[in-house]
Amino acid sequence: MSLSLIGIISIQAYYINNSVENEKERFKFIVKGALSYVSNTIEDNESEKYFSKYLSLDKEKKVDEDAVSQLLIYQKNNSTKEMLIYSSNIFEENYKLSSSLLDIGLNLDSISAKNIISSSSTEIYSNIDLSEKDILQSPISKIVRSGSMDEAQRLSFEKSFKEISKRTPVHKRVSEEEIRELLSNKLGKEGVEIDFEFAIYDNDLATKVRSDGFENDIMSTYKVPIFYDENNQSLYKLLVNFPDDKKYILSSIIGMILLSIVFTSIIIIAYSSALYQLLKQRKISEIKTDFINNMTHEFKTPIATINLALDAIKNPKVIDDKDRVIRYLSMIKEENKRMHAQVENVLRISKLEKNELNISKDRVNLHELIDDAITHVKLLVEDRQGYIKTFFEADKSSILANETHFTNVIVNILDNAMKYSPEAPKIEVYTENVGTNILVKIKDYGSGMSKAAAKRVFEKFYREHTGNIHNVKGHGLGLAYVKRIVEDHQGYVSVESEKGKGSTFTIKLPLIS
What we know:
The chain is an alpha+beta fold and 513 residues long. It is built from 11 helices and 15 strands. The longest helix is centred in the middle third of the chain and has 61 residues, at 254-314.
């Protein structure tokens, strides 16, 4: 059962840990994607801005013009005797432009730029040979097309632009506001709406582009290259970290974690309860076994005494001795009375548990009740050369109680004090008023008990373990009876004890006016 519980908890822990790791990977993937998007967007925006300026410039100062490629196609239609001539040319125009025109803050006089132009024409001639083309009539039809090749121009421009822009300080190429806005929008679309800090680093050195709270923690910082040069290499890195990333990751799976904790707790509670009941039943079984053994021992001695007394009475020499017969009969009566008292204790506890014991209460004087209880045990105490002293310091002692049962309560505590006093019993009884209550303290100087025993001394059948030695007779019912009766009188009973120094029982009861 324990292995099963450990297995279930281990599986739950593994599942939660696996979910956390998966959520971390998902978060990392989203952040990496957002950073790549921001990096590419910033580069594209920068390039587009200056390419648009470049297209709007007046490029009349031609420096050089080369034909990059030429294409000439001749096709003759034998049916119509017509000749079709198609030609296509691509020219590359090179310019030297002032760097100030593009406003990129470089200390250069000019920037090399290329303009790529395409032109094509279609001519149709009738009844001519190719050799006659240049000298004969004009073509029947002639179509001429020309234009700029934007993509080719853009690629040429971007290469030149990247080559020169890498010399520009990074804080002039991008602002903190632009990065924050792009990153916030992209992360928001992915459902990641938490605070972040960012910076751009140049060869692991911080630049001016950074948020106020950014700290470069290697373990929690994500980064991607930004601002590639003409060789597709970058010295700059865009870095971002999230102060609350752990809270975000946990918040996404907190529902599952809470459910797992709840169900695991239920399993643990159920297991603990079952284990507790099992141990409790085992303890009850041990207590019952001890009770039976103690009860057997309690009855064995008086039964043996009664049998011996009866055998003695049967003896012809004794039966005629009236004094001896009376003494033996008195012994039989006392032992019978002792067994009857033990049975009554068991029956009283049983009735108390079933709420069948009729306890009627009347106004009584607690001091008088204590004196009455002392008379029941005084002879036994004096027989052992002991004493019982009273210190009645309470001015008010009227309580609502059942005289018989509460007398039994005091007698039981006094009897315990005698039984657990190896030497001559020394017992002191104190009373005092505390507010609207009266305290009764019964102190002895006997063997005392351990702290563990003091906590359980009022449990039914409980007796402190003394091995197989039965030097103190009883079966753990007297103090259980005391506790039930005191509580039925709206009172409270407790004990303070130290091994080898004795015990003090305290009873607290409400006073009546």
